[in-house]
Amino acid sequence: MEGNGSIMITTAAPDFAAHFPSGGRLAGLDVGTKTIGVATCDVNWSFATPDKTILRKKFAADLETLKAVLAQHSIVGLVVGLPLNLNGSDSPRTQSTRAFARNLLPLAMPILLWDERWSTAAVERAMIAADISRAKRAERVDSAAAAFILQGAIDAMTR
Hints:
Blueprint: E1 2-4, E2 7-10, H1 13-17, E3 25-31, E4 35-41, E5 48-55, H2 59-72, E6 75-82, H3 92-103, E7 111-115, H4 119-129, H5 134-158
Parallel strand pairs: 2-7, 3-6, 6-7
Antiparallel strand pairs: 1-2, 3-4, 4-5
Helix pairs in contact: 4-5
């Protein structure tokens, strides 16, 4: 666990959930090199919904865009997809995502790093099965992957 005081970064869902005894809206992030997929959930952590895809620019601009989205939805915590290798080990992308999460600490909210190994592939398969066009898949896959990540985390915390 990283952070100070009540602001933390963890991979332990129970530790993260303990910060929210009354629930509250969470946001899920699928952090890519070119985009950040964003999803939100309801205050009772029942269901995650894709929200938007942010085109990445410089981190300061990305942070301001994220702040606006989080404020709009009254978000109290973040679930960030952690791209582990298939064997569970870290990769260069994993390290980049951990650094991104550390850079989010000024948002002053708890952050859960959640295993996202299969999120994009699962979302792509579902979209193909639903006969969604390639162009529509491209514009929706990041926020849908963020919803997949967030749903996995809230399911784990509400079991």
